[in-house]
Each structure stands twice: as C-alpha cells, then as structure tokens.
Amino acid sequence: MYVYDELDWAFLxxxxxxxxxxxxxxxxxxxxxxxFKLLRLLNGVYLQLHAYMLxxxxxxxxxxxxxxxxxxxxxxxxxxxxxxxxTRQNIQFHWIKLEQLPDAMxxxxxxxxxxxxxxxxxxxxxxxxxxxxxxxxxxxxxxxxAEIVRQHTTLHPEFTFxxxxxxxxxxxxxxxxxxxxxxxxxxxxxxxxxxxxxFEVSVGGGLGRIPYLAQTIRPFLPKRDLLSYxxxxxxxxxxxxxxxxxHKARIKILVHxxxxxxxxxxxxxxxxxxxxxxxxxEPDTVTEIAARFRYPDYAxxxxxxxxxxxxxxxxxxxxxWFKNSxxxxxxxxxxxxxxxxxxxxxxxxDATAEQMEAIADLADRYSFGEIRVGHEQNLxxxxxxxxxxxxxxxxxxxxxxxxxxxxxxxxxxACPGLDYCSxxxxxxxxxxxxxxxxxxxxxxxxxxxxxxINISGCIxxxxxxxxxxxxxxxxxxxxxxxxxxxxxxxxxEEAQLGTLIGPAVPYAQVADVVEDIAAAYLELRERPxxxxxxxxxxxxxxxxxxxxxxxxxxx
Amino acid sequence: xxxxxxxxxxxxxxxxxxSDAPVPEDAAVLLPHARFLADPAGLLRRPAPTGVIWPNDxxxxxxxxxxxxxxxxxxxxxVFKDGRAFSQARILREQYGFGGELRATGQxxxxxxxxxxxAGFDAFEVTKPADAAAFAETVRRYSVFYQPTGDGRATxxxxxxHRAPALAxxxxxxxxxxx
Lengths: 555, 179
Known about the structure:
Distance between the termini of chain A: 52 Å
Shape of chain A: globular
CATH architecture of chain B: Alpha-Beta Barrel
Oligomer: heterodimer
Distance between the termini of chain B: 59 Å
Structural class of chain B: alpha/beta
Number of domains of chain A: 4
Order of helices and strands of chain B: EEEEHHEEHEHEHHHH
Mean pLDDT of chain B: 91
Helix content of chain A: 25-40%
C-alpha cells in the first residue's frame, strides 16, 4: 500500500473543496451544463440514462480494507446498495444524486479515494497487474512506477484538456495481466541484455471504433527518463491529435496517420529538449516514493502446509476452487486468491455493500488488510497464508464469491450496456447473465478451459470485446439489438485483435451462437490441453464460421 | 472582456489591430498572426510594443526568432476543452525563453486559471466578469503541485526531498528490509 503523506492529503482536500464549489456554481446557474460537464467529468461524474454516475479510481488496483469499507458505505448511503468494478480497476456507482456528490466525495476522500481524472479528456487512472508485489513472475513492483506516473499526471497543467482520454498501464511481469498493448501508453518493465531494468514503451493501443494494438517506440527506456518521455509523448499528442472528430481523436489515430516512425521522431526530438530538465527521476525521488509503499510483514511459513493438503483431499469443492482461484505467491507459505464477481445470473463486476464489508474483514484477517481489483472485474486477496485457505474458502463461499470460474467461460467481462449507459446500442448485462446460465455446469466450463468472453454494448468497447477470446459487440439494426461476434482476440503479452466470424446475430440468438462456438471448439481441438485461443490461432475463424452459420441463416 | 494581470483587473494597453490600415508607429498593437508574419522585422522595428495573436494549430517554433522583441503573445482557447495552447505556452516560456506578456484568450474560465498560470500565462482575457473578480481567490485554491513547470512553484517531489530526515516515514525501514 502507498501511504499518503501530508502533501497528498492537502491536495485531495483542496480538490474536494474545489468540486464542492463547482457543484454550487452549477446549482446556482453560474455554470452552464456544458461548462460543468467538463469539470464534473474530470472528477469522474457522468450523466447516464437514469442518474449521475460516480467513477472512483483505484490507483493500480490496490485497496485497503478501510477503503473497501468506505466504498461499501457510499454504496449503501448514496447508491442502491452495490457498486460495479470496471475493466480499468475502477468502481462505479450508478445512482448518485448531484446534490449528494460532494458529500460522497468528501467521505471517500477521508479514505483517500477520489474520482479525479477517471473520465474526461484527461490522463486516466494508471493501471497495472492486480498481482503486483505478490506474484513470483515480476522483476519488481510496478506500482511504484504507476504511483510516480499517477502523481505526475494528476491535474497536470498542460495535459488536462487533451484531444481525448488517455490511458497508461504498467506491467513488470513475464505474463501481462495489465493489457498494456491496448493502452495509449503501455509500459513494460524488463531487464535488458546488460542486466539493467527499464521500460519498453509502446504507444497507440486502444479499442473503440477503430482498434489498434500499441506499437513499440522505444524498446528500452532508462527509469530516470520515464516522466520526461511520457511528457514528450503527451506534448506531441496534445498539439497534433485531432480535435475535430471525437472518433478520431485518440493518440492511436495520430500514430497511424503520421506513421509510427514520424511519430517516434517527433517524440524523440521533444524528449531531447526536456530529458535533462527537472523531470529526470533521480534515485532519491524513486526511493522516497518506494519508501511509502507498505509491505506485509510475512511470517516464515512452509509451502503446502498440512491443513491445505488435507483440505484438498477431503473436500472436492475446496479442491476445485483451489485449482481455479488460487495462485502462487512469491513468498513461501502464501498464496494469491482471486474472488469471482461472476455468479450465475449476476452482473459481472458487481459487489454489494455487505459483500464489500465482509471482504474487507476477511482481508484484515487473512491478507494483511489488502485487496486488489483486476481488469477482469474480479477482486483479489493478494497475500493469504496457505494454511488459512480452507477457512477463507468457507467464508468466501458464504458470501457468494468463491465460484471456481476464474478465467473460465462464465468469467465474463461486460460493460454496463444499455441498462445504464446513454452511449450503448444494446444490452450487455443480460447477455452475460444468460451466458452464465448456459455455462453453469462447471465440469463443462473446466472442459472448455481458459476462455474469455468480453461483451461491449457499443462501439466504444468498454467491455474490451476486441480482445475477448470470444468478443460480442452490441449494435443496433433497424431498432433491434444485434451482436457482432469476433474470436481469437487476447490482451496479454501475445495481444491480438479478434476476427469477425460473420454477420451480426439478433439478441435472441447470441447465447446459442456462443454455445455453438464452444461446441465447435471441443470438436476441433487437437487435444484437451489446446486452449480455445490456440485452436483459433491454428485453424483460423473459418471452421467456426461454418458451424455457426450453417444452421443459422442470418443477415 | 476583463483583462486580468498580476491578480487584478487592468486596462488593456494593447489595441487589437484587425483592419488592413497601416500600423501606427507609436501604438501598442496586437496583430493577427498573418499580419505579423508578413513583415515581422518592420513591425518589431517600431518604437511601440508589438503583440501577435497566435493560433493554436500553428507551431510556435515559427515565433522563436522573434521572442526577444515581441512584447505580447496571445494564445487562443477557441473552446474551454481545447488545450493546445497549454503546450504552446510552456514551449514558449521554457524552451524559447519568451519573457514578454503571455496572454490567454478565447474561452477563459475560472477553472483553468491555475493551469494557465502554471503553463506560463501571466495575462488573462476572462470570459465572465465574475470569474475575473474571483481570480486571486481561485488561484490560491491549491498549495500542492505534483509537476515541475517553468512557473517555479515548488513541487511535492522537491518538498519531500528537502524535508527533515526525521520526518521520513517509518515504513522506509520496512521497505528496505523487504529488499
């Protein structure tokens, strides 16, 4: 956990006071809705179909138990008793009243949570691996760098009115759980041939109407240059990104329009002018930030303790959950535990106030008071002693978050869709709910293995459909909800955009189509270990297209 | 539109010279960029101060040869949300060393004042009179700044490095042990 100092505190209080004044000016008519819109968006406040929505950023996905309780409090007192975790490690409340927003924000600020730059054409919440600091496959904790970038980009005087939103993600692990290739800037911390650590910088990834994967513009950037290099990229984008067409305003369009070589030249030229200025990160600065990350006081514990081994032998339910939801920790005797927020018939990523409070208590008891949020819309207890796993599992079962479907077909990523969002063309949540019913049989889900379904209710792609192993995109055709189906997408270190398999299918057929694709995969795979994504890679989309559309003439 | 400088509403000493009429020798004028670029040397040779209105889609590098003699550069925010001039301002101040008046024009609202100050603006044609009146109070809202810019305000980073070691958080030790 990053510990706020008096400066971070003062800043946040000042921000809340400023927003309170902006709301007052809006209510008094001193600000037009147009003017207010820009200001509220910079504080995470959207106007949706039914009400204002408040999006709270969870920097690099790390929450303390006290913060999770604060979120539960807001869910209960200002919303309808639940919150919605998003694909960018944020949480959204969909039913907040404008007059109550400043109070809700002040309450959250006391737990040092806020909505600054969680929307608007600004630099958004910096995201990273939800297993950061716990996983054995990282070279160092990427959250220190995410925090350095977070501070630098918070109310940046030059870059708060960009052409469009701007997302930065950092990973430091061999396996990319932060989806850096679909970000405006992706940072991959790695070690070069000389043994030095630095960043591979990629730029121009993003989904939406015109999806692109980020392209590497610098294979190795020394750590000292991180901020100056980001500043150079943003300066080129702020001046040259398109502002005449919202759909062509992301940096990915600029990169493709002028070409990655030209873009890189411009960034490098700008960077040369500023790299040795005040943005250069001296070791003292990094040490100072790193020193304010609190790490657990781990005990010396053995791996695979007796209690765990016996539990797995005795209880099949526990054994299945352990296999699915528990991962290796870098410290012997500990484990990383994923809590599925994907129950049958539920809304992906939703948690009730009661669940949040119970999870906060369990985090205090079993995970050093720490909780993580992942982009797959699940929660994580990052530091659980293995000897406590059986007890923890029972407690998680009791609150409905121990469904062993993590990474499986029913672990669906979905945006809020037409049920909440004014941009959507089609519903996402009911499609996800129906699919969790179709794939309720966990034996079938396990047989299908790792299979990610991502659903977006419109072209803005908040449900990351382009990078779902199976992606569903809601579109509107003659006033009806239809879904385009893509397969073969992925957002990890082998990131790939999915391929459309054929004409869009109507709402009533979309779950059938997904079942057909799953059935086709079971027939087509070479062996049970070949994952869906690998079968698609080997065979292409054609055999799937044939099977789906043979029985179903649509158009 | 009130002009704010040094936190106070002031008289504009420049005349916006938008017609094709010859520029008088003895008047402080603010010229459209095309007019200025047609004869920069001639205009800057006049005894009176010269200013230019610079559009936000032209590179400010074109002004680099003139920054020493220009008295005023007016940058444009056509709408509140168009932030290009923030970059132009910082480049002019921090890379070309422009020391004259840097004026924000267009849709200039209270909620941008501090960003503009930090980017190097020191004069503001404020859209709403009430905002102009609230200038001094508005720019005092924040005491903590995370980014170093050319305005010289001390950043959080600096403050942290300079604070007494005794105040360094106790977690430092834990972290070091963590290795």
